[in-house]
Design goal:
Protein name: RNA polymerase sigma factor
Keywords: Sigma factor, Transcription, Transcription regulation
Pfam family, one: Sigma70_r4_2
Family: Belongs to the sigma-70 factor family. ECF subfamily.
Number of helices: 11
Shape: globular
Strand content: under 5%
Organism: Nonomuraea ferruginea
Oligomer: single chain
């Protein structure tokens, strides 16, 4: 049964969950960690726990409205998470502004990741945090979905329920603003 669940696409799992709600648990298994990492990077670990729980609860409640012709539910789940994060955005902005002022990242990460990132970033965290904090919520959402979560423009558009052209223009604005802070070579 486990092997069968892995083979089933997200749309089919959601469809099946209408009659067998336990099928929905496979989506949690597939995406909870990714959603948690995304939320933790934006709001901190404690808030991320809540965001994950709220995201999957909202998704479960709305599963009847999901268009099962989409095989991947990832953009839909990220859209829900991003909406919930917006409710916590003041906390995100405070965290980014604190990082910009102090240079101390309040989020824990693995030692190897810390060393690698610190060596390559060479103190640019404060400047990047300042640039992120200065972006509009919409521009920041697009930039982080594309950059951190490796979403295509189409996936980000679906996640945020906006046209692909809007994703492109928001990403362009966000990159331009970040380039002004970090220099052209950082975000080519």
């Amino acid at each position: 049964m486990g092997a069968e669940t892995v083979e089933i696409d997200d749309g089919e799992l959601i469809r099946r969950s209408a009659h067998d709600p336990e099928q929905f648990a496979a989506l949690f298994d597939r995406y909870a960690r990714q959603i948690h990492l995304y939320a933790a990077r934006r709001l901190g670990t404690q808030a991320a726990d809540d965001i994950v729980a709220e995201t999957f609860l909202a998704a479960f409640r709305r599963r009847g409205t999901y268009d099962t012709s989409f095989a991947l539910a990832r953009p839909w789940l990220y859209g829900i998470a991003t909406t919930l994060i917006a409710r916590h955005r003041r906390q995100e902005e405070r965290m980014l502004r604190a990082l910009s002022r102090t240079g101390v990242d309040p989020l824990p990460e693995a030692l190897a990741d810390t060393v690698t990132r610190r060596v390559t970033a060479q103190g640019r965290d404060r400047e990047l945090a300042g640039a992120l904090a200065s972006l509009s919520r919409g521009d920041r959402d697009v930039l982080l979905l594309v950059a951190w979560e490796d979403m295509s423009y189409e996936e980000a558009a679906r996640a945020l329920d906006i046209p692909v052209g809007t994703v492109r223009s928001r990403l362009h604005r966000a990159r331009k603003k970040a380039r002004n802070v970090l220099g052209d070579e950082e975000l080519s």
